[in-house]
Amino acid sequence: MSIPHTKRICQIIKLKPEAVDAYKAIHAAVWPGVLAALERAHIVDYSINHYPPLQLLIATMKYTGVDYEADMKLVAEDPETQKWWAVTDGMQESFVEGAQGSGTDMPWWTEVEEVFRFEGKSQ
Predict the structure, then answer these.
(1) CA 50, CA 20: separation in Å to the nearest integer?
(2) Name one Pfam family in it (predicted).
């Protein structure tokens, strides 16, 4: 079941083929400061999946706060997260034309529309 006031988010980006091993390795030990910034921003149940045939990364998460835009701005201002993005952005290719990287006014990852949801037993 969803937590009341939960925003579910799904995003995609392309992973550069030469960066697959490095991307998986860095995500096997995400820096504690990055995780803390996500937690402070009310992000829970966050995962990133890789679909190799299309070199697609698919991120899903839930936002449980009350001001998503403000909380994402706080994440973008976090120094540890900025260092993380300096490493990981170079491993990715954005689908957003003109995007320069994470934490800017133009999105780096592309949000995708949810077209179906089933949360369990119907009433």
Answers:
(1) 9
(2) rhaM
Nearest to 26 by CA among 59, 42, 46, 48: 48
Residue 5 zone, left/alpha/beta (φ > 0; ψ -120 to 50; rest)? left
Go through the chain and tell me how many residues it has: 123
Q: Which of 91, 20, 89 is nearest to 51 (CA)?
A: 20
* First-to-final CA distance of the chain: 13
| Predicted confidence (pLDDT) per residue in 88-115, tens digit | 999 999 999 999 999 988 899 999 999 9
How far apart CA 16 and CA 7 sit, in angstroms, is 29
For residues 48, 73, 119, 56, the Cα torsion angle rounded to the nearest 10 degrees is -30
Q: Which letter, b or e, does each residue of 71-94 get, where b requires 16 or more Cβ atoms within 10 Å of its Cβ?
A: bbeebbebeebbebbeebbebbeb
pLDDT higher for 119 or 63?
63
Q: Is the pTM value of this prediction over 0.85?
A: yes
